[in-house]
Please model this.
Amino acid sequence: MPEKLADKRCRPCEGGVEPLSAEQTTELLRALHEDWVLSEDGLEISRGFEFQAYGRTLAFANAVAWIAISEGHHPVLTISYGRCDVSYTTHAIDGLSDNDFICAAKIDRLARESAA
Model:
């Protein structure tokens, strides 16, 4: 059985590697929840999450922050009442890397488990 994205670990990326190709990005995007979207320039993926209360939004954002710290790969989080938007890119390579998709998959798993 192939390893799922959410079960992988991020690898440090200090540059010196190429960003994912459009084909690789498209394939990895298919492994994520359908609400993840690719930016027009192809350099970022993002997804919005909605909650019934601000406390739930903050709890989710803190859980996302824990994933980021654990993986050493950090998203942009935009938090408002009842909504948390998460965006990933790999700044060191000015594009997308496997790390962006690994973390997105971990967040998908978090969202599924939180909803159950």
